[in-house]
């Protein structure tokens, strides 16, 4: 199948040429806002109207190539589209991304298909710390056997394509430390097997969907984005052992339902605009080892129920507006090694 292309002014080709040269010269450095904006626009031009897979997704397949099965052929289409969306690859990570043997591509891992052990499929992508600049094309939705997608510490820009909703086997999704934008990537809500979600250190914004806490996740890393909403009451349904809200723009109170998080081991609220009083239900978090609520606007006193946190090792309530006393029962928690409550209006009182 062929795709018709529109003629573009010669000046546009010159602009693209000089931009690519600029990127190559500055390989390995942080993207400027202008470069990130350029890559985002390039991605949006590549997306169909609804952001899903294009109808002619297989138009560029070389008819002379042979594939062991159709899933590897689809993976080839996806990875070739991704390679074309790369504008800077300082470590030449994708240098061997050519030919039909996609299982030999650097950062691409194959395994027997879950539904047919007799065939090999692309089961994982790991491009962590590759410092690649580019975007995610919609063709990546063809990687329907992928269970692990790790691209942290790169310079990827743009949005998470809607076509990722087709990756229904996704188990670990890590796009942290990039330049992704837009609202919370709701495609993650459609993955039934997802356990690990890491989207920290990006530019995601807007509200946090309450449904995220309905999922059977073990780790939820949301920190260092631009989310601004209340923390949903559904947090009490979460099965996660680690949740980080740090350095966003969350407002309101910590929901009382937090006490229902029986698997919770670490929770971090540092650097938001949260306020109100701490709910007594915090004392029900029997498995918590780390609780950090520093640098917010919490008021009132520390709840006496904190004395029930038998496994807590670190607590930080500094830089708030707390008043009253810190009881000796909190200070003598059996595993507590680091307790910070400075820059409040608190007084320690032994009892």
UniProtKB/TrEMBL annotation:
Any one GO BP annotation for this protein: cell wall organization
A Pfam family per the record: LRR_1
Subcellular location: Secreted, Cell wall
Keyword Methyltransferase: no
Highest taxon of the lineage: Eukaryota
Cited SUPFAM superfamilies: L domain-like
Signal peptide, first to last residue: 1-30
Domain Leucine-rich repeat-containing N-terminal plant-type intervals: 78-110
InterPro entries in the cross-refs: Leu-rich_rpt, LRR_dom_sf, LRR_extensin-like_regulator, LRR_N_plant-typ
Keywords noted in UniProt: Cell wall, Cell wall biogenesis/degradation, Glycoprotein, Hydroxylation, Leucine-rich repeat, Repeat, Secreted, Signal
Its job: Modulates cell morphogenesis by regulating cell wall formation and assembly, and/or growth polarization.
Annotated protein name in UniProt: Cell wall hydroxyproline-rich glycoprotein
